[in-house]
Amino acid sequence: MNVNIPATNLPRVVVIGCGFGGLELVKKLRHAPVQVVLLDRNNYHNFQPLLYQVATGSLEPDTIVAPIRKMFKGQKNFIYRYCEVTRINAGSNQLETNIGPISYDYLVIATGSQTNFFGNKTIEKAAMQIKTIPSALNLRSYIFQNFEKALLMNTTYEKEELMNVVVVGGGPTGVEVSGAIAELKANVLPKDYPELDFRSMQVYLIEAGPVLLNGMSAEASAKAKEYLEEMDVHVWINAPVEKYEDGKVYFGQGQSIHAETLIWAAGVSGTALPGLQETAVAKNQRINVNQFNKVEGYENIFAIGDCAQIVTEDTPRGHPMVAPVAMQQAKLLAKNLVRILNQETPENFVYHNQGAMATVGRNKAVVDLPKFKFQGFFAWLVWLFVHLMSLAGHRNRVITFFTWVWNYFTYDQSLRLIIRPYWKEPRKKKGDASPEAQGNETPQEKPQPLASPDLQSAKPAEPLPPATDTSPPEAPKEQQNQPPQNLPPVA
Ligand SMILES: Cc1cc2nc3c(=O)[nH]c(=O)nc-3n(C[C@H](O)[C@H](O)[C@H](O)COP(=O)(O)OP(=O)(O)OC[C@H]3O[C@@H](n4cnc5c(N)ncnc54)[C@H](O)[C@@H]3O)c2cc1C
């Protein structure tokens, strides 16, 4: 096997990653006197801001991705290789990849970020992520698998455990996904699962800091919380999550919630590749770069986007890990590479913050622009428009537009499909009485009220309707592997 990259007299710029940064950089180098070699472990660009809609069944995954080869069709100086880069050997200007070594004259690292569990192994093992297309599809399957499983449970406690959803992290992703799940609960799930009592399903959003949407205006934070609470999401702030044990999420001052679905949207770190010298990599795995994105200690290696940080007095923790930073750095780096080739001085990066926005649900969004802020229906339209126009490819925009229109008028996201079931390692419950630990045995019903039993110490109990456990009595063990007998016959 050989990587078979054509030899050329032009300087070779190798770009690792076709995210927002890599994509923009390669586009902008279209007419530069260089050979551009793009490497990515996925053969598509992923529009991460809409991943949560894939995870909650609103959009198909192929509407938010774009095939790399199609996007650069006709770009003469462009080569793509589908591979994973595993190491940088800066001394020999070579990369190690799973398809063989690839050499470079200039290297641009645009590998993005990864989910950060802050070393918490119990959370890492239990939590679902929304970072990649496969992880979003896993979450979609898992949510609907849990509802299918809830139908088979005998006790209210077990049903609650499978129906409850806990989202950790009150940034835009956490706000958007908890809002989307609240809408599923309000509009879709009760129609699909009329046998389940939806008072048993609670959606929680837990944030360690004092506000949601930290980094946006106080109005946006407050409004997002208000919207979520209107949508029946239990929002907890100042409540760091400690661990996940025995099916419970422990957080805040000793509170806990029992939930199978724990979604972690509470942090990301950089993705520095092995081989860079220690001083070039910060603790958070972001790569230290100078004001024009050159990696500290190297003359021909650059890093852009989420994986890079320019630390200055104004940005002591680097720029925010958002798409516009990656794209603006890419645009400037494309110009700077040409300047460097022409032995001119490169320009420093200045971030032009165009504002921030987040949607909470139907007709509800918050928008902070540099000069004014607004919330509500108009903000939601702006959010829709900006996201639609930012998607790569006309086909994706058209399909997404019609899907959104359909979802809006029918209140019926149609994609609650379990195409590729997601199986978690079975969790051992105390006393090994769980269905997972003991084949199909079910634990005895715990004497608990209907909803959020574990939160009673933390919050005055809300008056809840009485529990009506409509599930069938526990079947004799020998019958438990059989299909349920008390359901109406199907045609
Ligand atoms: C759920 C979610 C929602 C978000 N919402 C918003 C939003 O609303 N607005 C906003 O501005 N930002 C949002 N962001 C952040 C935004 O997506 C990132 O800031 C942006 O993607 C960063 O671009 P990037 O080019 O640095 O990296 P990425 O876009 O992450 O791209 C990295 C690329 O590198 C590839 N790669 C990584 N390692 C390797 C390797 N070793 N070998 C080969 N290929 C590799 C990956 O496959 C990927 O294609 C969101 C992020 C997430 C996860």
3D structure, described in words:
By secondary structure, this protein is an alpha/beta fold. It folds into two domains: 137 residues, FAD/NAD(P)-binding domain, CATH 3.50.50; 212 residues, FAD/NAD(P)-binding domain (3-Layer(bba) Sandwich). Helices cover 27% and strands 19% of the residues. It contains eleven helices and 24 strands. Strands 5-2-1-9-20 form a five-stranded parallel β-sheet, covered by helices on one side. β1, α1 and β2 form a beta-alpha-beta unit. α1 packs parallel to α9 and α5 packs antiparallel against α6. The longest helix has 21 residues. The termini are far apart. The C terminus is likely disordered. The structure holds flavin-adenine dinucleotide. The site of flavin-adenine dinucleotide has 35 residues, from α1, β2, α2, α7 and α9.
